[in-house]
């Protein structure tokens, strides 16, 4: 595992997820959408998975959508928040567990799924190493996480509002990885056949304050360690909402919210997997290939 600094306050994150657990169904549309896309990827893999893990399960969104899909025989759900795990456990096996310290033995899982949770991990390389170790040889990892362009509109609006109202800027939106970094991290963690790709979802809101309320309701509000501890001034909040509308609002007054979704696909190494051919083993010479 690699050394890491504490970018995120994980205790605060757990607390906020716990508060969001009861009403996640009212505003968890983003988790629902990415869960379906993740399971579409899983449907393309035609094999059985005797034991699978849903890492960062929230309130059991993925499990509710599985319903026999994906060849999963036994699904274990795990979430940083005990309250989230308890709600997920109503429909199956669930445990409170930290992505940064997985309680699973080496080679015990055939599949690990993770839906919009790993972007809150301080030591993402270390977490990926632990996932790879927990997988059996030729086990599959499929995950989604938020990428670097997520909530770019909110970031800009708050930056301009804080500069004008308070003379400085504080971390308001979490730092996210980009798709190239994510692919490199999979390879560094020892996965075989790593692939990272990206797509953008744009959600329309009637008001910036509604977006902020949804983020709180999803347990996705600011948990950056270096955030300002005092509550946001009302003047700053209103100025940010106004800047958001001025910069990005449409003719009907609605505003967009961008969510960049990075999807990760990788396998635990196994000799049966396709291997790159050795250099110099080609049957056609470079000179012939150019002609």
Distance between the termini: 48 Å
The proportion of strand residues reads 15-25%
* Counted beta strands: 7
What is the name of the CATH superfamily? Vaccinia Virus protein VP39
* Dominant shape: globular
Number of domains: 1
Topology of this structure?
Elements: H1 10-20, H2 24-27, H3 29-43, E1 49-55, H4 61-66, E2 72-79, H5 82-89, E3 93-96, E4 109-115, H6 124-134, E5 135-146, H7 152-166, H8 179-188, E6 192-205, H9 208-217, H10 234-248, E7 255-267, H11 286-290
Parallel strand pairs: 1-2, 1-4, 2-3, 4-5
Antiparallel strand pairs: 5-7, 6-7
Helix pairs in contact: 7-10
Task: Walk me through the structure.
The chain has 291 residues and is an alpha/beta fold. It has a single domain (10-269), classed as Rossmann fold (3-Layer(aba) Sandwich). The chain is built from eleven helices and seven strands. It is 38% helix and 22% strand. The protein has a seven-stranded mixed β-sheet, sandwiched between helices.
